[in-house]
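Trying the structure run again after the queue cleared.
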Amino acid sequence: MIISIFEKVKGFLMNPNEAFRQAKGDEPATVLPYFVLLLLIDAVLSAALISVFMIGTSPLPGLVTGGISGAVLLFLITLAGGFLCTLVFGAWLHLWAYIFGGRQGIWQTLKAVMYGSTPSLLFGWIPFVGFIFFLWSLVLGIFGIHELQEISSVKATLAVALAVMIPLILLIIVASYFLIATVTTTGPAMMTGPL
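Done. Tokens:
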């Protein structure tokens, strides 16, 4: 099983179109162990990295929160959050894939997201360059939607772009609102002392 997972990783990183073609018939019993293993690797490395940076800067001595080690807590949050975000994003992306003509079912979209997340799960934890692997995963998601939903590359690109850009724009609007609200309610800093 580990050898087949390694071969899949190699395929999605080196030859994604062919890897997605071969994965068309993959069932949950094949996809989920692959995804969970990569998610575990990401959660361990992310929690370890964050814990190392937090040593000495955390207001909580020994990174202890509620009796649970901070590293373990970060691991669990990364693991659960990664799985939940994948399912939610997969459903959201499926809506757009469906709008653009993808009629192969939500499982094919979830499979595209899970397999497509290979670069970000393996290398996204690396400081300063992790976002490059996130972008690479988005490109793999386009390949996956194209192959697994059997729609054109242009339609797959539009589906992924809209699935990413709409929440991003909404997040920017909400953040801007709170920033403006904070600045306008606190006002400029008062000058004290002689001029």
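Residues 61-67 have pLDDT under 50 and may be disordered. Worth checking whether this holds up in the mutant runs.
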